[in-house]
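Thread: Newbie trying to understand structure tokens

Hi all, I'm a second-year student working on a class project, and my supervisor (Dr. K.) asked me to get a predicted structure for one chain before our next meeting. I've only ever worked with sequences, so writing a 3D structure as a token string is new to me. If someone could post the tokens and maybe explain what I'm looking at, I'd be very grateful. Here's the chain:
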Amino acid sequence: MHDGAALEERGIPSVAICSEVFFAAGKVQAKALGYDDLEPITVDHPIQSLTSDQIRNRANGIVKKIAAALTIQFE
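---
Reply by user tm_fold:
Sure, no problem. This is what the structure looks like when written as tokens:
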């Protein structure tokens, strides 16, 4: 959350990514940093015990969510 907030402060659009067990903590941290609207994107937990291929598969599963979060939606 700190990295996302620091990038946003520099005018660089960002997303925060965390495993789902840390979602609530991420929201609290974002609010504490003054970024109530910085919505973390979640991946399944755990992460640290995964192989490179498993991590790549999880990342591929959230690419569209990341792109949507970084894209301005025109109505």
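A couple of things are worth pointing out once you decode it. The mean pLDDT is 89. The first strand starts at residue 17 and ends at 19. Feel free to ask follow-ups in this thread.
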